[in-house]
Amino acid sequence: MDSKSNLNNKHWTNIIFTTPTPVFISATPTKQIQQNVINIANEIEKAILSIDIIKVLAIITDNILAKTILEKAKKIVIFFRNHIILATILKKYQKEKYGSNYKLLKLPVKTHWYSAAKYLDSVYKNQLALYLTITEIFSINTIEIDNEIKTYIYEENF
Q1: Both 44 and 78 in a single domain?
Q2: Which domain of life is it from (predicted)?
Q3: What is the pTM (predicted TM-score) of this model?
């Protein structure tokens, strides 16, 4: 969801889902409706109910928050790609926990904006394997783990 002013400086609320291909849902002028948490939540609820709620992975309503989430996920993927031992341990946990259906960690492609959804999904679907990998490395204390990466993975809302 994104709230922006149009060329006439009128405030609009835009809702787009990524599936991972973007699907335009609605663009509505806010008119005299105050954009408080209740009204925004109602707009989001209407959009979610227009599809199957089970298909919703995350809701991002703030561009700054979205950028922060994307940066954290990118740092995690790059960290694991740059450390062969960590990547090997991660792969072990991916196979153990997810079987042959495990997802590789992906990075976004600049020319395909929907690839951000794919790489967020790859990090999301590997949460347990990432957590177990960091925990194993931390317990045997053989590799220095970047504290920032460790914090991201151990965060409650990761």
Answers
A1: no
A2: Eukaryota
A3: 0.61
